[in-house]
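Following up on my earlier thread - several people asked me to post the actual chain instead of describing it. Fair enough. Here it is, all 525 residues.
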Amino acid sequence: MPASELLSDCLKSASDRSAFLDELRTSLPSQRWFAGKAKQIATLELADVVDLSQGPDCCGLVILKVAFTDGTHDQYVLPAAIPSPGQKPVEDASPRIWRLLLQTAFLKSDDKASDEPQFGQSLKGIATDALDKTTLGLLTDDVIEVHSGQQSNTSVGVGESYFMKLFRRPQPGINLDAEVGMFLTGRFENTPAVAGTIDYVNPAGETRCIAILGRRVIAISDAWAFCLQQLGQFWEDIKRRTQPLPVTPPVVNWHLDAASHEIPHLARELIGDFLDDASLLGRRTGELHVALDVQGAEPAFAPEPLTSAALSTLLAGVRHEIDVTAALLKDRKAVVDKVGASGFAAQFSAKATALLDSLSTTAAPDIDLIRVHGDYHLGQVLRTTNDFQIIDFEGEPDRPLAERQQKRPAMKDVAGMVRSFHYASNAGAVGLIDALQDLPQTIDVAAWQQFWFACTASSYLQAYSTAVHGQRLLPRDPKDAQRLLDVCLLEKAMYELRYELNNRPDWARIPLIGLAEAIGIGSLE
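Reply from S.P.:
Thanks for posting it. Predicted structure:
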């Protein structure tokens, strides 16, 4: 039997298929990319097999349908192989599979459906000018590097030129990461250029993007890890300081409507070059939004004015999230009490609604709605030698595709990054920064955490404001700009709180502090 038929043939065998599915039922919940950990699997079904076999390499992609007992279902992409003739298929993510996937999609025509309707697979590779097909043809397994630390996707380094991101749970319709990435290629240098995409077409003709191939970026780390390292250094410098510090630091007003954004000299001394890094990231964020604010662009990216009706719709969505968050706070009262926020829930709904009312009574700011990143935080940014690269344009994964594709105020992304700086400033509370141990007993740690955050956020916002000056992205009136930022901070912090209460309850105090600050509650107690 030809190698190209072995994988499909084995998975058509009832005994082999049953054994393969039984193993997956056990292993799936332990995978970082499996989104159904909180659910109970009802059934597993092989929806299709994409054969990538060449010569002795018998391997391919299994399209797996997972049905849950709550009535929902997902599709997953799993690499699989037959280790040697006569053996049953196993899940396998070795380099050869990724090499064969790229070569099959971009160098070969693979439009033939198999004789069995169940396995009528098709791959469609769509290349851009950034792809050198000659390089793909010369690929060897030893230059394929599967990255560790995977989450919802699998990242694969492809030699020195490219990286591939495989979407383990591809969705039908448009893939936002591919769509936005292609739009930005050639328009914005601080995001990896898209070299191509790979679509899977099922026997019914439905298309799902399963992978993106991009130009490789040599990064030191992601910006979250870089930020924590810099923050740890901040606390180490405080420990080693020979001159005593005040119990509480100077108060820094980081808000957009502050009369002065002057950062104290003490911040320059203790935070150092990271203030310049925050400023650079603010500039890059502004440049990203300018690249997305293109008058006359194709309809999916053409800016739209923020009308009164659009503002009302935006605020109505936030009001709904206030109700959902208030209900969750009540339902998780024990967790909220445990993290020291027992008095917060009683005040939350009224204070958050009052904040919204302050914006709804004003005219809609004269700004554009644009396509935004949508899930913008330090983990979505790579730190290179002396710059940043912005990645992952899929939006917040828990929101529906249509909602993530909507045009929004650019301030949504700004709020996401400000919240990320706030998370970092409080990271010591959940054990991510060892340097918080053995600090001088005379200083107010919470006040110094706020000092670091305020100085960093101020540097970021000042640079962002400068980068978008003259564009219809930021309200002209600083007070309007701050009100809009406050609403976006509220929306983001509520999203974070719901995530933490459902996934990492011990972290819930961080977004609770952010929410308290956003709505003007002085204390969580």
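Residues 82 and 89 are 5 Å apart (CA to CA). That should answer part of your original question.
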